[in-house]
From TrEMBL:
InterPro entries, per database record: G6P_Isomerase, Phosphoglucose_isomerase_CS, SIS_dom_sf, SIS_PGI_1, SIS_PGI_2
Protein known as: Glucose-6-phosphate isomerase
Organism: Roseofilum acuticapitatum BLCC-M154
Pathway(s): Carbohydrate degradation; glycolysis; D-glyceraldehyde 3-phosphate and glycerone phosphate from D-glucose: step 2/4; Carbohydrate biosynthesis; gluconeogenesis
Family: Belongs to the GPI family.
Transmembrane segments: none
One annotated GO molecular function: glucose-6-phosphate isomerase activity
Location(s) in or outside the cell: Cytoplasm
PROSITE patterns: P_GLUCOSE_ISOMERASE_2 (PS00174), P_GLUCOSE_ISOMERASE_3 (PS51463)
EC number assigned by the record: 5.3.1.9
Length: 528
């Protein structure tokens, strides 16, 4: 297209929201009017399904659950008064608790105030709080935040090492709906051990965010932890940032959680409109469907041109891929749906993978996240009439043009600045876009059987490890890998047996491997 035609297309497809100062540009996606007309019946259905979801329909039949993250920022649309009261009571409790922590009304046993937060969670219980902390925490927050979001011992040691001299003024938040998520439980046990090693009682430093009646809630109550906040049954991990999961750590850091909720509510209202061109989430879903032919044939590259939004791509990776990555559709057909998401930030990527984006395999579309405001104070000129922010903006516009010129499509999302309100709006925008897209491709965005399958497989490996240790304890001679597998009642699992004993031996866990590591058939295993 020539410049005049592109300018007209830009005007035709630019979405603006005056209240949020928000813009969405999908004009550089090469769909045509015929495609839009063909998609209208699908969108009519998607809008209707979304209305049912918000009204309290069972959206996760696997678990018999409603999906109600929209109610968190507008309790007036909650399907009953009990849910409305629970949401409001939780928000009040979060505000009260944060105020008491900041004032020192609630304090550690041997210090006037808490100074740090240690958030222990995984997946949606970590990615949202991490993203918001990176995006919104000030340079001098009310409390500094640290994360344990994996079961990697070295990573746990590194985080605890940063808190060594401040453990006595650190508030630990354990986030798990069931209380049985292994990675979170492991982090909790490790942190409790660190408190005990420092001769500190851990209960006066711990709070829980968990489901009603969970193992974790019962533990927190029996051990007299500082506080417990609910993880609502009807909020999934990847849509939990605007529940207690994200609001508690944000409020403790001093982030304005009311503005986050207000921004999300305002975006919800915009994305509830059942008209394609007036609904930014629908426009995103349209662009995603077009880019991947409704089958996820192209990856989604997220490029925020702002350092504080660095973790937005990681947050979206879970939201999009866990929601949309499904083997079966709602009719039971095998469809292998999903959209792969990756990204870093601009203009770092000018010097990383933009070369491939422009000239390599055309298996992607880009979403640029543009922030209009450069900084609070006036910027110095790095060249006559040019600031660093001008360069950043120029690099975004130039990359967008260079990609389009070589037949690579892009979306541009523009916000005025990174604030609690705009971050809340971004979260709400993508939550709705995922829900609408899922209906377009006839899948359930709100269950995750693949994740559960991985957890079950991990549990079976740990059970096999116990069987191996027992078999070695009962043997009075070295065993080959095959012999050990048979003794552990797992004759078909020799490879898994080898990997388990190799790990145990590397960590001096009472297992010794004898022989040449390149000759697996000749290796012998003994227990110490």
């Amino acid at each position: 297209m020539d410049a005049a035609t592109l300018w007209q297309r830009y005007q035709d497809w630019l979405y603006t929201h005056d209240g949020l100062g928000f813009y969405l540009d999908i004009s550089r996606m090469r769909f045509d009017d015929r495609f839009v007309a063909e998609m209208k019946p699908k969108f009519d259905k998607a809008f209707a399904e979304m209305a049912k979801l918000e009204a309290g329909a069972i959206a996760n039949p696997d678990e018999g659950r409603m999906v109600g993250h929209y109610w968190l920022r507008n309790t007036d649309i909650a399907p009953n008064s009990q849910l409305k009261a629970e949401i409001n009571d939780t928000l009040e409790a979060i505000h009260r608790f944060a105020q008491d922590i900041h004032s020192g009304t609630i304090k550690p046993p041997n210090a006037p105030k808490f100074t740090d937060i240690l958030s222990i969670g995984i997946g949606g219980s970590a990615l949202g709080p991490e993203f918001v902390a990176e995006a919104l925490a000030s340079s001098s927050p009310q409390l500094n935040i640290h994360f344990i979001d994996n079961t990697d011992p070295t990573g746990i040691d590194r985080t605890l090492g940063k808190l060594k001299d401040k453990l006595h003024t650190t508030l630990a938040i354990v986030i798990s709906k069931s209380g049985g998520t292994p990675e979170t439980r492991n982090g909790m046990v490790e942190v409790q051990a660190a408190y005990q090693a420092a001769n500190l009682p851990y209960s006066p430093h711990f709070i829980a965010i968990t489901g009603h009646g969970s193992k974790l809630e019962k533990m927190a109550e029996s051990e007299n932890w500082l506080a417990t906040f609910p993880m609502h049954d009807w909020v999934g991990g990847r849509t939990s940032e605007l529940s207690a999961v994200g609001l508690v750590p944000a409020a403790l850091q001093g982030i304005d959680i009311d503005q986050m909720l207000a921004g999300a509510k305002e975006m919800d209202e915009a994305t509830r409109i059942p008209e394609l061109k007036q609904n930014p989430a629908a426009l995103l879903a349209l662009a995603w469907y077009f880019a991947g032919n409704g089958k996820g044939e192209k990856d989604m590259v997220i490029l925020p041109y702002k350092d504080s939004l660095l973790l937005f791509s990681r947050y979206l990776q879970q939201l999009v891929m866990e929601s949309l990555g499904k083997e079966k559709d709602l009719d039971g057909n095998t469809v292998y749906q999903g959209i792969a998401v990756y990204g870093n930030k601009g203009s770092t990527d000018q010097h990383a993978y933009v070369q491939q984006l422009r000239e390599g395999v055309p298996n992607f579309f880009v979403t640029f996240i543009e922030v209009l405001k450069d900084r609070d104070q006036e910027s110095p000129e790095v060249e006559p009439g040019v600031t660093s922010g001008d360069y950043l903006s120029g690099l975004l516009q130039g990359t967008r043009q260079a990609l389009y010129d070589n037949n690579r499509d892009s979306i541009t999302v523009t916000i005025p600045e990174v604030t609690p309100r705009t971050v809340g709006a971004l979260i709400a925008l993508y939550e709705r876009a995922v829900g609408l897209y899922a209906t377009l491709v006839n899948i359930n965005a709100y269950h995750q059987p693949g994740v559960e399958a991985g957890k079950k497989a991990a549990a079976s490996i740990l059970q096999l490890q116990n069987q191996i240790v027992q078999a070695l304890a009962e043997s009075n001679q070295p065993l080959s890998l095959a012999e050990l597998a048979a003794a552990a009642n797992a004759p078909e699992e020799t490879e898994a047996v080898y990997k388990i004993v190799r790990h145990l031996a590397a960590n001096n866990r009472g297992v010794v491997l004898q022989g040449d590591a390149s000759q697996l058939q000749q290796l012998k295993v003994t227990g110490e």
